[in-house]
Amino acid sequence: MANRRMFSLDIVDSDAFLDMPSSAQNLYFHIGMRSDDDGFCANPNKIIKIVSGSTDDLKLLLAKKFLLECNNGVVVVKHWWMHNTKRKDTYKPSNYLLDNPELKIDEKKAYTFNDKGLPLTSRQLSVNEPVTQDKISKDKLSKDNIRINRNRDSKDSSVIDGIHTNLKSKDSSLNDDNDLF
């Protein structure tokens, strides 16, 4: 499970979310923070106790479909893939994916129990390719290249100085009688 999670303002700024009491909103955020990489939370009752919430808050989140109840008391954050994306190299599949074959992902990247969504075995929607990092090669760091680049930079600066010199000479050719500015 990752230490960082994101929440989409499209969901948490909605009237449906903001109409809930702050205790239910708080529970939603804490369940989201403690969910696995697929949005499943196996211990919502433990989180209720941690945040001093009530089971009514959980029932409200389930009734408003911000959370979906799966087998054995496990809940899943419905809009998980709208909130979060995971890189393939850091993604750890949930233990609960295979336990819930009726759960699908719809075209809006939200979990659903109807037949219109894609099966959970299709991870293309949710997991990105690993991010590559640009690295400076040893060739670019060689002493010869650094000297060549410094010489090139000094030539460019002299050209720039020459342009400034020419501009200054043109400015000095203006008469004091011609007040252009």
Strand arrangement, major sheet: 1-3-2
How many strands? 8
- Tell me about the largest β-sheet: 3 strands, antiparallel
Q: Would you list the SSEs in sequence order as H and E? A: HHHEHHEEHEEEEEH
Give the low-pLDDT segments: 122-126, 128-135, 155-173
Instruction: Give the fraction of residues assigned to helices.
Output: 25-40%
Number of continuous helical runs: 7
Describe the structure.
With 181 residues, the chain is α+β, with helices and mostly antiparallel strands. The chain folds into 2 domains: 9-128, no CATH class; 134-173. It has 7 helices and 8 strands; from the N terminus they run H-H-H-E-H-H-E-E-H-E-E-E-E-E-H. It has helices at 9-12, 15-18, 22-34, 44-50, 55-63, 80-83, 143-172; strands spanning 40-41, 67-69, 75-77, 86-87, 104-105, 111-112, 118-119, 127-128. The strands form 3 sheets. The chain has a 3-stranded antiparallel sheet. Helix 3 packs across helix 5. The longest helix has 30 residues, at 143-172. The radius of gyration is 29 Å and the shape is globular. The termini are far apart. The model is unreliable at 122-126, 128-135 and 155-173 (pLDDT under 50).
